[in-house]
Fold:
Amino acid sequence: MTPFRNRAAAGRELAARLAEDARNRDAIVLALPRGGVPVGYEISRELRIPMDVVLVRKLGVPGREELAMGAVATSGVSFVDQWTVERLSVTREQIEAVIERERCELARREREYRGDLPQPELRDKTVICVDDGLATGASMRVAIAAIREGHPAHIIVAVPVAAPAIAEAMRNVADGIVVARLPEHMRAVSAWYLDFSQTTDEEVRDLLARAR
Structure:
């Protein structure tokens, strides 16, 4: 299995795999900022369907922020991995502090990306939920729970790369999943991109404006 050149190339490859899912359906792409947006934009452009964002933030373990212990969405939906917090002795007070900080960041991003625009209408639609990869699946799990509140007909998770066990777990919370790469030993999402440079707020705003 070869890595992707960048997120845009990954999105184009996913679009080809998703063509059947989007055909003859009222579909919309919802991307997880920031890294999922360049992937989602290419899917939106190739399949000629609308794109918006679903705002979710990872809850990083205090002192080891790159390690997820859960996630939270703007709707208030949250998920905390009890196995992780117990194994690392994370206290309830620490968890609540992290959740509060990430909710503040979600509010900032909501203003930054959407401004005065309303939330997209999801009822009875096929939602293609996109990120640049699945490591733990915590953010995607919360994104799906938040999307369910909009009563879509179907939710399809679409990611360029995922650990096989995480992809299988997603089948229990989504209505379908499309993954381009399923490496047996996945160390990090970044290892599957030649260019994994950080997506900026400005890039997210630009891609959303172009999609709209």
Q: What stands out?
A: DSSP finds seven helices and eight strands in the chain. The longest helix spans residues 92-114. The first strand starts at residue 27 and ends at 31.
